[in-house]
Each structure stands twice: as structure tokens, then as C-alpha cells.
Amino acid sequence: MDTLNIAGKSYNSRLLVGTGKYKDFAQTRAAIDASGAEIITVAIRRTNIGQNAGEPSLLDYLPPEEFTYLPNTAGCYSADDAVRTLRLARELLDGHKLVKLEVLGDPDTLYPNMLETIKAAEILIKDGFDVMVYCSDDPIIAKQLEEMGCAAVMPLASLIGSGMGILNPWNLQIIIENAKIPVLVDAGVGTASDAAIAMELGCQGVLMNTAIAAAKDPVLMAGAMKKAVEAGREAFLAGRMPRKLYSASPSSPTNGLIG
């Protein structure tokens, strides 16, 4: 079976979905169900998973028994903050090791600060975490993160929350061709065709939040993203026909025509 394999575990869905920006936890649950996602990301600094006693908890709507949680460090601007946040997540989730690391460079673009990201990744890997890392689409950086021991690299398609889609497919292609760990597009997906393109390029999966949560109908968009990821993966496995410039080729046979 064609599964996504991360840190020794297999998943049927190649769509990873965030849990922020929805109107309430009920809508979050409905969208996650429609997406078919098995891995869900949680911004520890913004979502209650037990650290705020007496408040509604995401755990009540999306039980860890049903989903693989992927705590992330959204809102962190230094390696120290990121490490501290994920250690807290590990305590809250009973020793959970799979995490998403992102260390941002500035609040306007939310572009990753790769120096701080690498520093945090080194600490977390030594501390026993399985690190999926949000990064720039620099092939050299992506390879360094792999060689350090990251469980997956997740280059941005375009800026977080921009919905601009894949702006540099060529860099993504280089990263994919040279990687021995999963490569997932993270950030910038705006609609279903963006997700399909990422999968057609050979990405192992796509991670998104705003593209679903900010849609006019998040639940319907979640279903569309599920189909797009599946279709893109199948197209990649099938192998597209070669591109031909000015080389017409009839779609039906030319032999045996009535003369």
C-alpha cells in the first residue's frame, strides 16, 4: 500500500492539517473529518491542550487516540523559545516525540530564520524528538537538516498564510530528488490545485491550515484538499506524458483509416 512513512509510523493520508483559525472547535473537527487527515498540527502557544485549566480543550474534540498530534512552535522567534515550547508539549501529551519545528524570522513575512531553526533542531534531536522542520526552499539547507537527523523537511511553497501557491517548483524538485527522508510542502497553499501540483512534483505530503480554515466553506474545502492530494499523488506515480513543443500527436490511431 502507498503510505506516508514518518519516524517509523505509516499513514494512509498524505494531507496534514492545522487546527487554528476556525470559528470554534466543532468546525475544526468537521473540517478535519472531511480532510481525512491523520496527522494534525497544534500551535502550543495558541491552542489549549490542557495548559489552560477550565477552558475548552482541543483534546476533547480531537482525541489523541484518534489522531497523531504534531505540536508546532508557531509564534517562536528563537531556538530557545522553540525548544521550551516543544518540551512543554511533550509533557502535556505524555511523552509525545513527533513535533513540527518552525522558528520565524520576522512577524511580517513569517519567513523562517534558518540559523535559529538549525540550532533548535540540533538540541531537539539530541533530546530524543522526531523533528519535522519548516524551512526555506534552499536545497543545501534541506540536505543539512536531513543529515542532522530530522524526520522530514517541509519547505515553504510561499509565505505562510499567503495562499500564493508554489512559487519556485524548481527548488522543490531539487530538494525532492536529493532527499532520503519525506519532503512535504508547508505554507503557501491556497486552493486544491496548489496541493495537487505539490504532489505531482513528488512531495510526500502537504501540510496546510489557512487554505482550509480561511475558505468560505472550510469543510467543503477540506474535502477538496483531500481529493487534490490523492489525485496529485496518483498522477505522480502514473508518470505524466512528456511535454512537447510544436509536436502534435493525434489522440486516436492513424492507421487503418478509411481512404
Short account of what is shown:
Residues 6-253 form the Thiazole synthase ThiG domain. The chain is built from nine helices and ten strands. The protein has 259 residues and is of the alpha/beta class.
Structure write-up:
- By secondary structure, this protein is of the alpha/beta class.
- The chain has one domain: Aldolase class I (TIM Barrel), CATH 3.20.20.70.
- 37% of the residues lie in helices and 16% in strands.
- The protein contains nine helices and ten strands.
- The strands form three sheets. It has a five-stranded parallel sheet.
- Helix 1 (25-35) runs parallel beside helix 9 (218-238) and helix 5 packs parallel to helix 6.
- It is globular, with a radius of gyration of 20 Å.
- The chain starts with a strand and ends in a 21-residue tail after the last helix.
- The relative contact order is 0.14.
- The mean pLDDT is 92.
List keywords for this structure.
259 residues, 3-stranded parallel beta sheet, TIM Barrel, 10 strands
Approximate helicity band: 25-40%
What is the annotated CATH architecture? Alpha-Beta Barrel
Number of DSSP E strands: 10
Count of DSSP H/I helices: 9
User: How many separate domains?
Assistant: 1
CATH fold-type name: TIM Barrel
Q: At the fourth CATH level, what is the homologous superfamily?
A: Aldolase class I
Average predicted local confidence, pLDDT? 92
Tell me the name of the CATH class.
Alpha Beta
Along the chain, the helix and strand elements come as EEEHEHEHEHEHEHEHEHH
The helix/strand class is: alpha/beta
Main β-sheet, spatial strand arrangement: 5-4-3-10-9
Biggest β-sheet description: 5 strands, parallel
Our Rg estimate from Cα atoms comes to: 20 Å
Shape: globular
Low-confidence stretches: none
Distance N to C terminus: 49 Å
Q: How much β-strand is present in the residues?
A: 15-25%
Keywords: Cytoplasm, Schiff base, Thiamine biosynthesis, Transferase
Family: Belongs to the ThiG family.
EC number: 2.8.1.10
Pathway: Cofactor biosynthesis; thiamine diphosphate biosynthesis
